[in-house]
Amino acid sequence: MSAQGKTVDNGCDPVIEAELDAVDRRIVIATQDGLPLVRRPYHAVARDLGLEPEDVIARMRRLLDAGVIRRIGVVPNHYALGYRANGMSVWDVPDERVQDLGRRVGSLPFVSHCYHRPRHLPDWPYNLFAMVHGRDRVTVEGGVDAIARLLGDDARGHRVLYSTRILKKTGLRLVA
Amino acid sequence: MTEFEKRLLDGYQRGFPLTPRPYAGIAEELGVDEAEVIATLRRLAAEGVVSRVGAVFEPLSVSASTLAAMAVPDDRLAEVAELVNGFAEVNHNYQREHSFNLWFVIIAADEDGVARVIDDIEERTGLEVLDLPMLEGYHLDLGFPLQWN
User: Which of chain A's termini has less CB crowding within 10 Å, N or C?
Assistant: First the structure.
């Protein structure tokens, strides 16, 4: 087995800590820009890597089961589809409540990412990040209002940082 | 955007078949030819509507990463953004409306690699880099339903 998903108890959520072997890493590197759009994409990857197609498929399935791969599928370019507004909402909530609140915020349909991150006092008091996507700012503001209602008095402060320019955007990139 | 294209974009953000002929599997479900699925995805990719078809990796499981922020004076923004973008370890870089106006993700093989990039950027710009690594995630990126106009 190459991608053994170990569940580590870090005191909060189980974190997947999978170990990739050299072949797994080669598969990650070979597929991080996407699978080829040909009839037998896994065969094409296997041929490039000198592997058997069944091995590529089995390893990718293991990586998926272990959580190393979140999903396999069509990755839309949301910006090209008209999702032009992208608000990074940041919240100052009590540390002892952040996990419970984060889970609830993260389950809102318009929140694409929700993370607990460290504060950086005094400049940066915010410890909960929720990315809100929408076609325009009005839609994003509606989402932020909904988060504010959900958090109630637990939100001691918040900001919404809209992106004004995408300066660089590539997928996850491992260097061989 | 045709109904078929919408179904491809909306219905297959996850669950792409791990079978020898995955596009044939999708074609069967949608009642079209395998060749039509491949040709449509190729076109949508060429048009930039589809970024790629493939795996979305969990960054923490294959590497170390952080979200970094910098407060860059306006007259230095272009220069600093170019310097930051020059690092292969930097993948997203957004300008945002805040005194911390440059936000980027650093991904490296391990935490030392991330720290080296931060140190290097600080040294070369003379500006502080806020290091905000994820402590816990509450939402897995499983794709999200698209709303069509």
Answer: C
Residue A8 at interface with chain B, using a CB cutoff of 8 Å: no
Is B111 inside any structural domain? Answer: yes
**Structural domain that includes position B43:** 3-47
A93: alpha, beta or left? (left if phi > 0; alpha if psi -120 to 50): beta
pLDDT at B149: 53
Q: Provide ipTM, 2 decimals.
A: 0.71
Instruction: Write out residues in chain B with pLDDT < 70, as ranges.
Output: 59-61, 139-149
CA–CA dist A87, A111 (Å, integer): 10
**Out of B38, B58, B81, closest to residue A167 by CB:** B81
Q: Which of A118, A135, A166 sits opposite B132 (nearest CB)?
A: A118
Decide yes or no: CATH 1.20.120 for domain A4-66: no
CA proximity to B77, closest of A165, A162, A169 = A165
Contacting residues of A for B135, CB less than 8 Å apart:
115-118
Q: Which residues of chain A have pLDDT under 50?
A: 1-17, 176
- Boundaries of every domain in chain A: 4-66, 85-162
For residue A81, what pLDDT is reported?
Answer: 81
Q: Tokens at residue A68, please?
A: 């190393």
Domain count, chain B: 2
**A138 interfacial to chain B (CB closer than 8 Å):** no
pLDDT at residue number A84: 77
Residues B29 and B69 in one domain: no
The CATH number given to whatever domain includes residue B72 is 3.30.70.3460
Q: What tens digit of pLDDT does each residue of A68-98 get?
A: 898 999 998 877 787 778 899 999 999 999 9
Which member of A31, A70, A175 has the closest CB to residue B142? Answer: A70
> Quick one: B10 and B36 in the same domain?
yes
Give the pLDDT of residue A110: 86
Query: For the stretch A11-46, what's the b/e string if a residue is b when 16 or more beta carbons lie within 10 angstroms of its beta carbon?
Result: eebebbbbebeeebebbbebbbebbbbebbbbbbbb
Strand, coil or helix: A22: helix
Looking at domain A85-162, its CATH class is: alpha beta
**Does the residue B127 lie in any domain?**
yes
